[in-house]
Amino acid sequence: MTNTPHSESADHGYISDKDRYLARLKRIEGQARGIHRMINEETYCIDILTQISSITSALNNVALSLLDDHVRHCVVRAAQTDGPAAEEKLTEAADAIARLVRS
């Protein structure tokens, strides 16, 4: 996890949904532990792959939701200032989208 100057502020778009994000991530953690247990118990490969697909989908949904919050909050706020910060936020969003598409 990178620590950028932007991560120091507690005024991120997702803050209002922080508990919901944490609950979703806790479920994903449980799924990951379940996969660990499945491998330890030598569960059938396809069943494990199905669970991995489920986690991947859940993580993608969290990422897309965070991206949406970023655009609606951070990018919009920066765009209202119409300076270098706006361009920086747009670039960050575009880079995040590119990372999501590649994964």
UniProtKB/TrEMBL annotation:
<keyword id="KW-0238">DNA-binding</keyword>
<dbReference type="GO" id="GO:0045892">
    <property type="term" value="P:negative regulation of DNA-templated transcription"/>
</dbReference>
<keyword id="KW-0186">Copper</keyword>
<protein>
    <submittedName>
        <fullName>DNA-binding FrmR family transcriptional regulator</fullName>
    </submittedName>
</protein>
<dbReference type="InterPro" id="IPR038390">
    <property type="entry name" value="Metal_Tscrpt_repr_sf"/>
</dbReference>
<dbReference type="GO" id="GO:0046872">
    <property type="term" value="F:metal ion binding"/>
</dbReference>
<dbReference type="Pfam" id="PF02583">
    <property type="entry name" value="Trns_repr_metal"/>
</dbReference>
<dbReference type="InterPro" id="IPR003735">
    <property type="entry name" value="Metal_Tscrpt_repr"/>
</dbReference>
<dbReference type="GO" id="GO:0003677">
    <property type="term" value="F:DNA binding"/>
</dbReference>
<comment type="similarity">
    <text>Belongs to the CsoR family.</text>
</comment>
